[in-house]
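Sequence in, structure out. First:
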Amino acid sequence: MTPLDKPLKRQIDVEGQPFTVTLDPTGIKITKKAHRNGMEVRWADLIKNDPTLVGSPESMPAVFHA
């Protein structure tokens, strides 16, 4: 497996809007294309399922449930 040792950027379309997804060693960031501010999540917060990050576990998408 290739280690994630530098930022990896990809473009995605969500409901017709372009977004940039950046994966780096500390976490993931999603921003609207050509913008700087966006949603950022640290890997540690995502893995430990921090309820303050996304609300109660019941409100999380099924893909994040163990």
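Second:
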Amino acid sequence: MPDSALTPEDATLVHDFVDIPPGLAIDRTDVQRARLAQAAGGRFRKVAPGLYEIITHAPDNPTA
């Protein structure tokens, strides 16, 4: 599901809590991970479709 198919609220949530590298599309699983990260107070990094890493520290550059 491309980013444009998400609600604006979902897209904002994903962008706030899931690091997605260029070339990977946002999907519904990203929204689930973002909600989990928001509830737990963490972040995820999408490595590949369906594959995520848990980020346990604050990013060095939050705008990256």
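Remark: The chain has a mean pLDDT of 87.
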